[in-house]
Amino acid sequence: MALIPGTKLGPYEIIAPLGAGGMGEVYRARDPQLNRDVAIKILPASFSRDPDRLRRFEQEARAAAALNHPNILAVYQLGTHEGAPYLVSELLEGSTLRDQLFRGPMPVRKAVDYAIQTAHGLAAAHEKGIVHRDLKPDNLFLTRDGRIKILDFGLAKLIQQPHASDPGTPTLTEGTEPGVVLGTAGYMSPEQVRGQAADDRTDIFALGAILYEMLTGKRAFHKPTSAETMSAILNEEPPSVTQSGSAIPPALQKVVQRCLEKSPQQRFHSASDLAFALEALSDAGTAPTAVFATPAQRKGLLWMVAAASAFVIIAIAAFSLLRSRAVPVVESVVQLTNDGQVKAGGLETDASRIYFNEGSAGSFRIAQVSINGGQTAEIPTPVLNPEIAGLTGDGSSILVLSGAFMARMETMWLVPLPAGQTRRIGDSDVLSARVFPDGRLLYLLDSGTFVADAAGSNARKLDELSKYRSTPQISPDGTRLAFHADDFGAHTWVLYESAADGSDVHPILKWAPGLPTQMCCMRWTANGRYLVFRGSSEDNRWDLWALPQHKRFFGGASTPVRLTNGPLSYSSIAPGRDEKRIYAVGALRRGELLQYDTNTRQFHPFLGGISALDATFSRDGRWVAYQSYPEHSLWRSRTDGSEPLQLTYPPLQIEFERISPDGSQVAFNDGDANVYVVSINGGTPRKLADHGVAPDWSPDGNSLVVTSYLDNAFSSRLIDIRSGKISSIPDSKGTLGAWFVSQDALIATASDQSKLVRYDFKTQKWSDVVTSPDKFVNWQTSADWKYFIYSTGGNNPTVFRMRLSDARIETLLSLKNVHYLDEINSGPSLMSAPDGSVLVTRDIGTQEVYAISVNWP
Question: pTM for the full model?
């Protein structure tokens, strides 16, 4: 709402508009009672109807009113005018720090003075338990008498209860959901970028970025897009403040560096500590001091300098021999593609192009882009569903694997570049394959690991490698192999190396605390000096790591270095031929839960379109349980979205959940195939069994059926909830994903997922129900147990519904043109709402190819 001069807001009279401020319009007004001018910020009526903006505006008022400090804007009153809330504060004369920075860098003494004042103001706020979370030059006001005032606590958050000795401090509440990123790109701390909890050290990071900008006239983290800026905050160090050309004391440089540490633990512990450090600099003088000496003194000084220089050279030489080598550091992350297509499968690069897979599982295609980015183009090939497996050493052909959707074994083909006749290699169907620089093939069969010539003939088994059941990566010179072995239950792994002929297998890295709990997909840099691999830990995000291949002085194993730390989750990595860059598919993950309306044949957001997977409902339709994505934590709420409650927390990662018929419990399995139940009201999950996935409740709620992988085969087992007894279902070997369709019957698929089979508890017999030319990828019963709903994958993923009384099948919808979420390339996740409608999680994240430039020491 626009207010004209003379308008009354309670006792205040509007004098003139002052412009926008934060989320509202700011006016100069007169307080007749105290005979003073004040500032009034008013939230437009349209904004006040937004509960979140209204909450944040009122939160700003309470946060600022809780503070009384000369470096914080004084707030007098919170009121309402025609349904719009307004905030009354002291009137400031001057300009924002941002206005000052438009003129360029500031003198060192002035920058330090402003930083000291800001630190004192923050210290007062932190003492009250309030962290600003959006500190930036726009929120720092410089009055005409040189005083800094901190503005806009609209993102402030109470981080602790006020001290008992200060009962007059108001208590603030903060409703931000976990994982929500708040702040301004360029001044956010790494923990804010990752959506993690913010404390007072977040403000210290922001003040460090502001001090950097005051000293240099440039932002510490500034890229063309917000995503790139946030990536720089996580992965890059800003240029040294000395590069600005100003004479900045080394001690001040160290203060700035400490404020901008990626880890909160390495920053100043409090704003008071930071203020003390800056004041010590100010007291000592912040400008370099000139020293004048007599000729005799200068001659003596020259000898002293020469001796000191010799000592330093010797010390540096000795230290260089004994110290650990410098570590690689990411210098930039640049997005190369922007086509919005799903990217999964393989990725390879030569000196000029990047080749990668696009499309959903079952319908892969080969795409390419310049190493400098730009428009993508498809490489046509007659091969079905080609998944990139390697690039020949001369860059003339791509090795691809071809097979139907979810095929276990695939055929090998060579796709020539830039054009030519695609040809099949060898006669064997393989599990996986790689190509040596000289064109020889390395592939994995059930019987072991083999090496063959370029035509796929004269195969020779690598006996020592075969027992590991892992496909090695090949070094650039073709002399070494690297592979890893997992122990999923213990969250550990070992990285091995061997000679190219499979001999001399030895570990080169074992999991240890501080390393990712999962690792995958190692690749050598072009010069063979580093192994780059992907690692994932509790946050379910994959980052890039590098393991030096040099031998450390005096022996000892090399230590891996984490190259990235979000927000992108990386896959399909390929080091560049220029020995400087790594190319990878980076994903910003986000899902949207949708409900399909059969009448309008349209999707609509369900539960507000939350980022969730595998929604499951109680029989009465009152409760829903689901996984948050990408965290994979278990949540429950009412089906209208009210009363949300988180039921599990990291490091527990949920893969599948199913709510009990009475809505009192949720059964689930984690990523290690352990089966649990947890109360719908929260508490500690109770473990029921290991070696089990996809638990489903019997209609009476007394049993769970799970799929187990034992003795190299899938089978179905029953868990008695009351006694904990586990029993195998007769003749269930080769069945997968059993679901109850009545108290006396189950439906599952054959392990090759080509047909549905039914088990009758009374006769203890299995019988075929239906077969399909496409794979069954997801299935479940309807809430009333009248229908069995299932989906197929491949080039035309489709959802079907089968009536259990007579096995009549009808098509519900095609998902061919739906960008559904498919984390493990197994087709669309399938959910059925209480009214029988279909739910799907749409992928609204991004998957693009990025170039990560690394300074390799």
Answer: 0.61
